[in-house]
């Protein structure tokens, strides 16, 4: 591995840690709000976000509850960040019930908007180098098995 490869790996791990930390912070803020803490108290205790930011984050989470659910991208980031090992990552991803991207229709006509699914996160992680060829192939094979079973009479 070259010095440049080591540096880009360092950048990738830092990005993964930041994304995991952001997700954990959002979950903590949502939990604190549900427990009755005011936005001011949450902001003061965290000491890293303003009261206005707490309000915006809570509004986003209320509008899109998926922001606080665990995703395949988060599992992969937790591995890249060193929080879980590759075996645990693969165990969790192999058991995932993936959604797949699609083109929505309006009045029977396909639109040009693409709605992503969980599987898109796996593909992106692979293309960004967070999954090895073997890991990606194992996940793809597992999904093909599931899809074959579902389509069989």
* Assembly type: single chain
Order of helices and strands: HHHHHEEHH
Structural class comes to mainly alpha
Name the poorly predicted regions: none
| 3D shape | globular
Our estimate of the beta-strand percent is under 5%
Distance N to C terminus = 50 Å
Count of discrete alpha- or pi-helical segments spanning 4 or more residues? 7
What's the count of strands?
2
User: Main beta sheet: strand number and arrangement?
Assistant: 2 strands, antiparallel
The number of distinct structural domains comes to: 2
* Largest beta sheet: strand ordering: 1-2
Q: Compute the gyration radius: what is it?
A: 19 Å
* Mean residue pLDDT: 93
Helicity range: 55-70%
Secondary structure layout plus pairing:
Blueprint: H1 3-34, H2 39-46, H3 51-63, H4 72-80, H5 86-94, E1 105-106, E2 109-110, H6 118-127, H7 133-151
Antiparallel strand pairs: 1-2
Helix pairs in contact: 1-3, 1-4, 2-3, 4-5
Organism: Rhodococcus baikonurensis
Protein name: Helix-turn-helix domain-containing protein
Descriptive overview:
This is Helix-turn-helix domain-containing protein. It comes from Rhodococcus baikonurensis. By secondary structure, this protein is mainly alpha-helical. It has two domains: 1-68, no CATH class; 70-153, no CATH class. 65% of the residues lie in helices and 3% in strands. It contains seven helices and two strands, in the order H-H-H-H-H-E-E-H-H. The chain has a two-stranded antiparallel sheet with strand order 1-2. A hairpin with a 2-residue loop joins strand 1 and strand 2 (109-110). Helix 1 (3-34) packs across helix 3 (51-63) and helix 1 crosses helix 4. The longest helix has 32 residues, at 3-34. The chain is globular. The model has no long low-confidence stretch (mean pLDDT 93).
